Amino acid sequence: MPGITREEVAHLARLARLELHGAEVDHFAGQLDAVIGAVARVSEAADQDVPPTSHPLPLTNVVRPDRVRPSLAPEQALAAAPAQDRMRFKVPRILGEDHQS
């Protein structure tokens, strides 16, 4: 596979709106060529007999069943809150929403 050319690097730089000068184009051409070569080597290693996986080891999620248990009353949960409104935590507005719930 031929290496990436200076023209291809310059084209990619224009698409990315980067201003590259002569030495930078040569430098990045070498780096991009190395990256493309590494990807090609990884692609060669993949085989049709190997199924795609999300993790190298088999995993099973371990979860406990949901059970209703006693918890804090709303008054207890809000007791140490710096601000509250209508039995809810009151926090500073961050999105500029105009509606009130």
Summary tags:
39% helix, 101 residues, 2 strands, flat, mainly alpha, two-stranded antiparallel sheet
Structure in words:
This protein has 101 residues and is mainly alpha-helical. Helices cover 39% and strands 4% of the residues. It is built from three helices and two strands, in the order αααββ. The protein has helices at residues 6-15, 22-45, 74-78, and strands spanning 84-85, 88-89. Strands 1-2 form a two-stranded antiparallel ribbon. The longest helix is centred in the N-terminal third of the chain and has 24 residues, at 22-45. The model has no long low-confidence stretch (mean pLDDT 85).
SSE blueprint:
Layout: H1 6-15, H2 22-45, H3 74-78, E1 84-85, E2 88-89
Antiparallel strand pairs: 1-2
Q: Percentage of helical residues?
A: 25-40%
Gyration radius (Cα, Å) is 29 Å
- Can you tell me the residue ranges where pLDDT is under 50 for at least 5 consecutive residues? none
Let me know the average pLDDT: 85
Give the number of DSSP strands.
2
First-residue to last-residue Cα separation: 62 Å
Largest sheet: 2 strands, antiparallel
The H-and-E topology, N to C, reads as HHHEE
- Tell me the strand percentage band: under 5%
- Indicate the overall shape: flat
Secondary structure class reads mainly alpha
Count of runs of 4 or more consecutive helical residues: 3
* Strand line-up of the largest beta sheet: 1-2
What is the compact description of this entry?
The chain has 101 residues and is mostly helical.
